[in-house]
Amino acid sequence: MHKVLHELKVDLGDRSYPITIGQGLLGVIDLTPWVAGQQVMIVTNNTVGPLYLEKARASFPGKTVDVVVLPDGEKYKDWQTLNLIFDALLENRHTRKTTLVALGGGVVGDMAGFAAASYQRGVPFIQIPTTLLSQVDSSVGGKTGINHPLGKNMVGAFHQPQAVLIDTDSLQTLPAREVSAGLAEVIKYGLIRDDAFLLWLEAEMDKLVGLQPEALAEAIFRSCQCKADVVALDEREGGIRAILNLGHTFGHAIETFAGYGSWLHGEAVGTGMMMAADLSVREGFISSADFRRTAALIKRAGLPAFAPASMKEADFLNLMAVDKKNVDGQLRLVLLRALGDAFVTDEAKPEHLRQTLGAFLPEAG
Amino acid sequence: MHKVLHELKVDLGDRSYPITIGQGLLGVIDLTPWVAGQQVMIVTNNTVGPLYLEKARASFPGKTVDVVVLPDGEKYKDWQTLNLIFDALLENRHTRKTTLVALGGGVVGDMAGFAAASYQRGVPFIQIPTTLLSQVDSSVGGKTGINHPLGKNMVGAFHQPQAVLIDTDSLQTLPAREVSAGLAEVIKYGLIRDDAFLLWLEAEMDKLVGLQPEALAEAIFRSCQCKADVVALDEREGGIRAILNLGHTFGHAIETFAGYGSWLHGEAVGTGMMMAADLSVREGFISSADFRRTAALIKRAGLPAFAPASMKEADFLNLMAVDKKNVDGQLRLVLLRALGDAFVTDEAKPEHLRQTLGAFLPEAG
Fold first, then answer.
1. What is the mean pLDDT of residues B215-230?
2. Substitution target from B99, B111, B118 for chain A, most A beta carbons within 10 A
3. Which of A192, A194, B256, B341 is most deeply buried (CB count within 10 A of its CB)?
4. Is A325 annotated as a binding residue?
């Protein structure tokens, strides 16, 4: 039995594409309408591959399907692993009419997407995100890339997929920690732009943590729709799109300090959003009660409330300075004017910033 | 004394940019109007850097100028060397408003351009090509990228510069072999689209080989104009732009066989164009006299007339099959319908192709 629960179109002119969300879709939905040539290269990892590769193959009837299996983990989001994709493409003589397919979480999506952006200067790709985080985050926006030892996502490209297929069945096997990491981004959409969605999340959080399929599909749909609205307004991230980075400047500092992969991206964003909400109180935008609502929802999603053990104020300040959200040296942050209304500022007072950092350092716990 | 001899605009809508050609321009022309932020990263190599780096710095008054010096040579057009650029950008905390500057030949341009295309998912760059080949080839088209052990330019991006500055003074120190390699591409423009330019080249070839500045500037201008006309018709290389690959499918096979860097790109293209002209005779498009005119001009430019020692027919056939000009397995070649009129075909007869390969294998000499 399969059931399409939601469909939406990401509207980007001649690079528009559909997102199909439902249960039992993988291997049932025919994806060949989005494959221009005869060749398909599925990029997956050694965790997701054994679970879903054969189903994914069945979505490309009549095509020549090759596969490259990457090691699983954020720490492999690097040149060496990216090159495994190029090796596989060239060894199997894939031409510039090949189509890449990302089957896995955000790391697989970012790497397969960047490989597609740069193989022979650009070939099409299809996303089949299998984690909640990648379903609500990587499905929309066209961001692809890899990490550098000195910073996350420092090398990459904007490259839009031909189509995205989201099968909620793939979440039933997802570790609880990764569900929580995905819920961080879901909560983010409520916080930055949609107070009605925030109320819905407060009401339905237990169902989401309990992996109820209809609730999950609804949360994914509303998250993708929110992100699509923002991205359509600002595809290349010159303006409003920056609000999607709520919690990310703090979060990237946490991830970099902890070492890629030891904190999940969504976990770092969860803590980072609490920090952004805390700073928004100190800057006089939201109330302490708003902060407590925000922190309570993030904690109910199972996310950490403090920075990693042994992280210091100076670590935050150093690592935030190389974050790519900075323009010509100014520290830019996303704050909340109200719950459901984020904005970008480079005017946060340094003493408020330091108070916020102090409140979330591990010894503060 | 400096003298602007030619200016042209590459017309690509909101990605249009100017090319300025003349003598004594480097360090005199102010390039800061094309720098949006405060930071500049000059990418050069250890041959060009000692000759022109200080002049190049002087073209960016008032900006913070950092430099990364790469090892010189096609064999360094790889991931490892590309990463030196990212290392320098991150170590010097360059933001997404930095501007990269390519100071050098085609390898530096391709790598600095790809670094600009992918650093933080894309930053602006300026080209200062210092070899004849890069002045007439890389200045127009937006192609950037690196090599893979299994094929040239297999990983890259389309990324247009903000501006191109061509100073013919930089050709006075260029080795004769590299002048010849550049003349191969100059001749190409005459062959594919401009029989009047071909006549001009037959008249002026001795001046070009003798490095007369006005003749060089004229040849560069007409070459860039020809390429700009073709690229403006077909920016992403779906159609007519493929004629720019005259001689390149044969040439890439030669370069790959010889090992990157042992034959210059232009040398391989020179031999490749003779092979394309030869095949065009066998296919019944041009006369033997046309072939002899073509071959004579290419030889006068100082280019090799045979494939590398020990290269076999099978080497060509294997290496041409992975060339990126192939679509879904069909061997596509650029041939001449007449001198000054190239076209793309996948219908060359296999026996004619083998005769052409045989005529240019080293033992044929």
1. 95
2. B118
3. A192
4. no
pLDDT(A325) > 60: no
Domain regions of chain A by residue span: 3-171, 181-364
**pLDDT digit string, tens, across residues A95-148:** 999 999 999 999 999 999 999 999 999 999 999 999 999 999 888 989 999 999
Distance of residue A100 Cα from the nearest chain B Cα, in angstroms: 14
Q: Quick check: A96 and B324 in contact, CB under 8 A? A: yes
Q: Does A237 participate in catalysis according to the annotation?
A: yes
What is the CATH class of B3-171? alpha beta
Beta pairing, strands B151-158 & B143-148: antiparallel
Judge whether A30 is annotated as a binding position: no
Of B109, B113, B143, nearest to B128 by C-alpha is B109
Tokens 């909640």: give the residue. A132
Confidence of residue B362 (pLDDT cuts 50, 70, 90): confident
Task: Please name the amino acid found at residue A275.
Answer: M
C-beta neighbour count of B16 within 10 angstroms? 12
Q: Is B93 one of the annotated active-site residues of the chain? A: no
Cα A162 from Cα B314, distance rounded (Å): 38
Interchain pair B154, A90: CB under 8 A: yes
Give dist(CA B117, CA B96) in Å, integer. 11
SS3 readout for B249-289: HHHHHHHHHHCECCECHHHHHHHHHHHHHHHHHHCCCCCHH
A190 is in an annotated binding site: no
Nearest CA in chain B to A151: B90
Residues of A in contact with B155 (CB under 8 A): 86, 118-120
CATH H-level superfamily of B181-364: Dehydroquinate synthase-like - alpha domain (1.20.1090.10)
Q: What is the pLDDT of residues B235-254, one digit of tens each?
A: 666 678 889 999 999 998 99
Q: Which positions ≥6 away from A106 have C-beta within 8 Å?
A: A129, A131, A133, A134, A137, A138, A265
The model's pLDDT over A46-99, given as tens digits with 9 standing for 90+, comes to: 999 999 999 999 999 999 999 999 999 888 999 999 999 999 999 999 999 999
pLDDT, one tens digit per residue, over A224-244 is: 999 999 888 876 666 788 899
Contacts with B150 from chain A: Cβ below 8 Å:
87, 90-91
Whether B159 sits among the annotated catalytic residues: the reply is no
Instruction: Respond yes or no: is residue A148 known to be catalytic.
Output: no
Check: CB of residue A151 under 8 Å from CB of residue A265: no
Of the candidates B189, B200, B177, B178, the residue with the CA atom closest to the CA atom of residue B132 = B178
**Is the CB of B155 inside 8 Å of chain A's CB atoms?**
yes
Q: HSE of B199 in the Cβ direction (CA atoms, 13 Å)?
A: 3
Tell me what ipTM this predicted complex has.
0.84
Distance between CA atoms of B242 and B335, rounded to whole angstroms? 11
Nearest CA in chain B to A123: B157
Domains B3-171 and B181-364 share a fold: no
Known binding residue A75? Answer is yes
